[in-house]
Amino acid sequence: MTEPRFSAQPGAHERQLQRRAGNPLFPPARRNVTAADVKHARLQDLEVARAVEKEFRDILDAAAGLERRADMEVLFRLKLRIDLCYAGCSGVPGGAPEMKAALRRLVEAIDRVQRRAAGNDPLALAELDEEARAREEHFRLQDVPLVADLTREDPVVEADELVATLLTEPPEEAAAAFALFDDAQRRQVRDQARFLVAGLEPAEPRRDNARRVLARFDDLCAGPAGPTETQRIGGH
Question: Which residues lie closer than 8 Å to 212 by C-beta, 6 or more apart?
Answer without folding.
Answer: 171
